[in-house]
Amino acid sequence: MLRRAGWIGSGTLVCTLAGACRSSTEVVCDTAVVSPLRVLVRDAASGAPIPEGTSGTARTGDRIIPLVTRAGAAGSTSELIALDGPAGRYEVRVRHAAYRDWVRGNVLVRGNRCRPTETVVLEARLEREPR
């Protein structure tokens, strides 16, 4: 266990809880998890949350991260989140059978060498498929 949280760089002293210390040039990360993305899913015409049936993905480089539903008010699933993922640039895609796919590219999630340091919140306004 380390006493220090976050990441450390060149010439930093690292100490364990037992008191043993050493000089380190390696990166040491804590175990905190920051969700890189949160997507609020709405109907483009009404602005109302879209009920169940929404799914999505976030792509960064060659990594594809599923977006999972998070229960909203009254049990609706109008919110999708990425549970994990690195800092970087993402392409976010949201799908629902009754709507056109919503895609947003070049979404920047800031972070350090260990993890994202922020959660980017997007609003996906889906347009209904013509009947």
CA-based shape? elongated
Unreliable runs: 1-11
Radius of gyration using CA atoms only: 19 Å
Derived structural class: mainly beta
DSSP helix fraction: under 10%
Strand content: 35-45%
Mean pLDDT, nearest integer?
Answer: 82
The total strand number stands at 9
Note the quaternary state here. single chain
- Spatial strand arrangement across the major sheet: 8-7-4-5-6-3-9
**For the terminal residues, how far apart are their CA atoms?**
59 Å
Name of the CATH first level of the largest domain: Mainly Beta
Please, what is the CATH homologous superfamily of the largest domain? Answer: Carboxypeptidase-like, regulatory domain
Main β sheet profile: 7 strands, mixed
Following the backbone from N to C, one meets helices and strands in this order, namely EEEEEEEEE
Instruction: Supply the CATH architecture of the largest domain.
Output: Sandwich
How many helices in DSSP terms?
0
